[in-house]
């Protein structure tokens, strides 16, 4: 089994940074109406591909909550065909990216590159 993520999968991790935790819940009728009324018809950030959606969900949790990933989401991730090593790689990269971003809160420092690396 390949424990590396593809470029597309790493792109999903990066895109998940902008997703809210609320994007993981199906909106109720009232919330859906309000969202359409206030924000217009905005497409759902959810992926049709179950594997990519499992990755997005774990990534959204990791961006917002760090290591506190609900067990059901970890199970969904593993059942989608990802490995524990891939899970650890995702969490580690997100944590590194968050640490890099917080190191220069007063503006970028010379020589710093803040990419999802």
Entry summary:
By secondary structure, the protein is mainly alpha-helical. It is built from five helices and no strands.
Keywords:
globular; 117 residues; mainly alpha
Would you give an account of this structure?
The model has no long low-confidence stretch (mean pLDDT 83). The protein is globular and about 45 Å long. The two termini are 22 Å apart. It contains five helices and no strands. Helix 3 packs across helix 5 (84-103). The chain has one domain (7-103). The protein has helices at 7-16, 29-39, 50-65, 71-79, 84-103. With 117 residues, the chain is an all-alpha fold. 15% of the residues are buried.
Total of helices: 5
- Over the alpha carbons, how many angstroms does the gyration radius reach? 16 Å
- Tell me roughly what share of residues is in helical segments: 55-70%
Q: Find the structural class using helix and strand composition.
A: mainly alpha
Largest sheet geometry: none
Mean pLDDT: 83
Q: From N to C, what is the helix and strand string?
A: HHHHH
Number of strands: 0
The unreliable regions are none
Please indicate the percent range of residues in DSSP E strands (runs of 2 or more).
Answer: under 5%
N-to-C CA distance: 22 Å
Compute the number of structural domains: 1
Overall, the morphology is globular
């Amino acid at each position: 089994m390949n424990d590396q993520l593809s470029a597309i999968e790493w792109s999903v991790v990066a895109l998940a940074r902008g997703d809210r935790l609320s994007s993981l819940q199906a909106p109720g009728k009232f919330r859906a109406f309000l969202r359409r009324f206030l924000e217009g018809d905005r497409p759902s950030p959810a992926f049709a591909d179950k594997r990519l959606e499992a990755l997005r969900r774990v990534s959204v949790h990791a961006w917002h909550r760090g290591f506190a990933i609900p067990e059901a989401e970890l199970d969904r991730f593993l059942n989608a065909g990802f490995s524990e090593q891939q899970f650890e790689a995702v969490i580690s990269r997100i944590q590194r990216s968050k640490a890099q971003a917080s190191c220069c809160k007063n503006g970028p420092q010379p020589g710093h590159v803040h990419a999802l690396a």
